[in-house]
Amino acid sequence: MQRSGQIAFLWGLAVGMPLLLVVVAGELFGWLTARHRPYEGDVLLWQLAVTALPFVVLAVPGTLVARASRSWMAAGIAGAVMACALWGYYYVNGYRYWRDHLARGTRPGGGVDFGVAFLMLASPVLVGLTMAAAHRFITVRQGSVKRG
Questions:
Q1: How many other C-beta atoms are found inside a 10 Å radius of the C-beta of residue 106?
Q2: Closest CA to 6 of 14, 112, 134, 41
Q3: Backbone torsions φ then ψ of 104, nearest 5 degrees
Q4: What's the rounded Cα separation, in Å, for the pair 108 and 98?
Q5: Residue 54, CA distances (Å) to 24, 75, 126 in order
Q6: 122 backbone dihedrals φ, ψ, rounded to 5°
Q7: Does residue 138 register a pLDDT over 50?
Q8: Percent residues over pLDDT 90 in the chain
Q9: Residue 33: DSSP 8-state
Q10: H/E segment holding residue 18
Q11: pLDDT band at 39, cuts 50/70/90?
Q12: Burial 110-141 (b: 16+ CB within 10 A, else e)
């Protein structure tokens, strides 16, 4: 892939992943549970920013490198997979809560699942670590292939 394709891919992830995981999946979740998803400005912006952060952090140095490399693409793909897994767990957990309590009209004690809340708060770090590991793995592998 050429450098311009790499730049477009990385910035496409930085813009596309938050829109897909927060807006599109959120609307699907709202439709599935027959609830309107409240788009409070600050909450929506926070979710978009938290989701975009690791992809922007990857896209900036990926844009500044002199030549295209598979390691940047692999890092983006690995981060996208991890982000989808984390957001998928978030939505499945919300669906289970809705199915077990709200759909039946019962109100359980408690409220927020703090485990999921902290997991989503840590998600930029987890996605970033996944990207760094994928980038490092491919870089080392390419180096060993070139030397061997």
A1: 8
A2: 14
A3: -90, -5
A4: 11
A5: 19, 11, 9
A6: -85, -5
A7: yes
A8: 53
A9: T
A10: helix 3-18
A11: low
A12: eeeeeebeeebeebbebbbebbbebbeebbee
| Spatial CA neighbour of 69 closest among 140, 2, 15 | 2
Close Cβ partners of 53 (under 8 Å, ≥ 6 residues apart)? 124, 128
Per DSSP (E only), the strands in the chain are none
Which amino acid belongs to residue 123?
Answer: S
pTM of the model: 0.87
> How far are the Cα atoms of 107, 125, 126, 136, 142 from residue 118, in angstroms, in the given order?
23, 12, 12, 27, 36
Question: Would you call 37 helix, strand, or coil by DSSP?
Answer: coil
Q: Position of tokens 């670590």?
A: 129
Q: Is the pLDDT of residue 120 over 80?
A: yes
Is residue 148 very low, low, confident or very high in pLDDT (cuts 50, 70, 90)?
A: very low
Rounded Cα gap, residues 18 and 24, in angstroms: 9
CA distance 147 to 53: 35
Note whether 120 and 90 are within 8 A (CB).
yes
